[in-house]
Write a structure and sequence with these properties.
Number of helices: 25
Helix content: 40-55%
Structural class: alpha/beta
Largest sheet: 8 strands, parallel
Number of strands: 21
Oligomer: single chain
Distance between the termini: 52 Å
Strand order of the largest sheet: 1-14-2-13-6-3-5-4
Strand content: 5-15%
């Protein structure tokens, strides 16, 4: 492995390939009335150099750098000359939407007379993000369970990644979907406002495996195919981490041929890739596959139904936990029955060459997925892939989350122990890759993230690490409060923490964003502050997330308390967010099977499993949470971490190194005094 730390003394213009990109960037900034930012120019120069020299680049660009423009300008400039498109991949729909609907159109309009020709930019998503016209017109049979058993992610929840919507009747949503499908030009789910739930969307969409492909009678009008055509003709293709992973790992050409990838929100890449290649199989799914065979083919479904019964019996009473050495014997025997029955059913349901029976295709897609998952789970021995059982618990008033009993229905999961090797081979080997985020390095080191991406070790490709800093003056703009006097956190939020939250929120007069490790913790804190003060406290789950963030941003005296989805992506500059409260260090759950397996693997190889897995995960999440405070040059405020371990534990310094360099104190009186002055204006 070779790392080249980017030089800091050279003028950005002197780097290979940088001058034309910087001229375009300067023009764009001047014409839009923006402010010249040296960090942005430095990043753009190094991105241009990476594209010129075909060298991998990791860039940490703090909040306020303007990193989207810093990579879009050199990407667009380069793509016009290149034979193949440049792919830009994001983790979240929000950033994808910002790039496609705001950043790119504004940039192309501004630089119209500066480019050799107009640049073509296309958005490409997975097939099930588009309306299927054939399904809409009745070409597919109705499903037994529209909630889509075969659309579960590794946690057993929706895999769509779309924000939840306010509940409405399924019939009402489907009616609205059908009306929208008559007028949409793209069929893209994200253009439907307000959105619909996953269950309704499943009524009008298909997965890649269910699609009839060229055999479909409406293939020429297919929204997904048209999007792929546009992507194939584009200069820059905007997509997501999951599609990038499928293209790199599965050998399926879901993206057009490309030689350059720019990954934004790169701190999420390993988790998103892991999620994309993690599989889940339940007894209900096997039975659904058997029903599909029975309804849509002439083959016998009896062996698969019997295998489902055997799997149910084998899983009953098994604890919801990691199986460190692979499937235990009785579960393995049942899984062999599932594998053999699915394989036989696939053989017995082969269509002839002209068959375009959508029902048969749906049945075979479920059989294929069942067979693939069964084979993976049988082959997982804990060295390269791991398996575990989960069960869905529930929420009880006053008790919070209550785990399911071992007799409840089980889901088996399989996931790679590491995606580093697969990323090295599937993503980095034949392409130039630029990865960027506000949180990539711990202190001044990229080693941890580079290792997780496959960029360290023997035969690792050459790469460059660069931190362009942030335009914000963190020590003057913000304060980090370490509540070193509080007891080590236990389950839930302690009475001492609740009192401290109230003290801080009252001193600030609201304007507090509370980031909690659990739903129960957020609700506990909200109830306590509501009971003991007149502050307006908003709680995640009481309304849509978008609506809550909007209300919080418009009321300088409101508080917003929530969980993980508030830790990143919430952008509330100004006085509305002058206090960020974090109840505890966001370590992975102690019972998280994949984190446990990865920790054991690092320890077995002689490393420090806790630091490499749990502490690194916590450092990045903590940095994301603390980053919610300072979003603009005139923002002021306090990040309060109510977990004494950040101040007292041996690993505390490692975690603090990932945070913005805020002025740090453990004196409560200093913090409350500062908050009162801020509240008074």
């Amino acid at each position: 492995m070779t790392q080249t730390v980017a030089p800091t003394g050279d003028e950005p213009e002197t780097l290979p390939g940088a001058k034309p990109a910087l001229e375009l960037l300067d023009t764009a900034i001047e014409r839009t009335g923006g402010q010249r930012r040296e960090g942005q120019r430095r990043m753009a120069a190094h991105v241009a150099q990476a594209l010129e020299l075909k060298r991998h680049l990791l860039v940490q660009a703090g909040t306020g750098t303007g990193k989207s423009l810093a990579y879009l300008v050199p990407a667009i400039q380069r793509s016009i000359e290149a034979e193949k498109p440049i792919v830009v991949a994001t983790a979240t729909l929000a950033l994808q939407s910002q790039i496609v609907n705001r950043d790119v159109p504004r940039l192309l309009e501004t630089l119209e007379d500066q480019l050799e020709r107009p640049a073509e930019v296309a958005l490409l998503k997975g097939r099930n993000n588009y309306v299927c016209l054939h399904k809409l017109e009745g070409g597919y049979p109705e499903e037994d369970d529209p909630s889509a058993l075969f659309s579960l992610n590794s946690e057993g929840g929706s895999a769509s990644g779309h924000p939840s919507v306010a509940p409405s009747s399924l019939a009402e949503e489907v009616t609205r979907l059908r009306a929208w499908a008559e007028t949409t030009d793209t069929g893209d789910r994200d253009e439907l406002l307000p959105g619909v739930g996953d269950r309704a969307w499943r009524q009008v969409s298909v997965t890649a495996a269910e699609c009839l492909g060229r055999k479909c009678p409406l293939v020429e009008e297919c929204f997904s195919e048209l999007a792929r055509q546009r992507a194939g003709e584009a200069d820059v293709v905007i997509t997501n981490h999951a599609l990038l992973a499928i293209n790199a790992f599965e050998g399926i050409g879901v993206l057009p041929e490309h030689e350059t990838v720019i990954v934004d929100e790169a701190h999420e890449l390993v988790d998103r890739v892991t999620g994309a290649v993690t599989g889940a199989l339940s007894v209900q799914m096997v039975r659904a596959a058997a029903r599909g065979v029975r309804k849509h083919t002439s083959a016998s479904s009896d062996p698969l139904s019997a295998a489902a019964d055997a799997l149910e019996t084998a899983c009953e009473g098994k604890p919801a936990e990691l199986m460190p050495s692979g499937l235990v014997p009785d579960v393995a025997r049942a899984m062999e029955l599932v594998r053999d029955a699915a394989r036989a059913a696939l053989s017995d349901t082969k269509p002839d060459g002209k068959d375009s029976d959508a029902g048969r295709q749906m049945a075979r897609s479920r059989l294929s997925e069942t067979l693939e998952l069964a084979e993976r789970m049988l082959g997982a021995d804990g060295r390269f892939e791991v398996v575990w059982i989960s069960r869905v618990g529930g929420w009880q008033p006053g008790a919070g989350y209550v785990p399911a009993a071992d007799t409840e229905p089980a889901t088996l999961h399989v996931a790679p122990l590491s995606v580093a090797g697969r990323l090295r081979e599937g993503l980095f080997e034949d392409r130039t890759v630029v990865l960027t985020s506000a949180t990539l390095a711990i202190g001044d080191s990229f080693d941890a993230v580079a290792g997780s991406l496959g960029l360290r070790g023997e035969k690792a490709p050459r790469w460059e690490g660069l931190d362009v800093g942030s335009p914000f003056d963190y020590p003057r703009q913000g304060m980090l409060y370490l509540a070193s006097d509080l007891p080590k956190p236990a389950r839930g939020v302690s009475e001492q923490q609740l009192e401290r939250i109230l003290q801080l929120a009252e001193a600030s007069g609201g304007g507090a964003l509370g980031l909690f490790s659990s739903k129960r913790g957020a609700e506990q804190a909200a109830a306590y502050v509501r009971e003991h003060s007149d502050l307006n406290v908003l709680v995640q789950g009481e309304s849509s997330l978008r609506g809550l963030v909007k209300e919080f941003s418009e009321d300088d005296d409101a508080c917003l308390f929530g969980t993980m989805s508030l830790w990143q992506g919430v952008d509330v500059p100004g006085a509305a967010c002058r206090l960020v409260i974090i109840d505890r260090i966001p370590f992975p759950r102690p019972d998280d099977p994949l984190s446990s397996a990865r920790t054991r693997a690092v320890s077995r190889s002689g490393g420090n499993g806790f630091m490499a897995v749990s502490a690194y995960h916590a450092a990045i999440r903590l940095a994301q949470g603390a980053g919610r405070l300072i979003r603009a040059a005139d923002d002021r405020g306090v990040v309060a971490v109510l977990d004494s371990r950040l101040a007292t534990a041996r690993y505390g310094g490692f975690l603090r190194a990932a945070l913005p360099p805020l002025w740090t104190t453990d004196r409560l009186s200093t913090v409350t005094g500062a908050l009162r002055r801020l509240a008074e204006g």
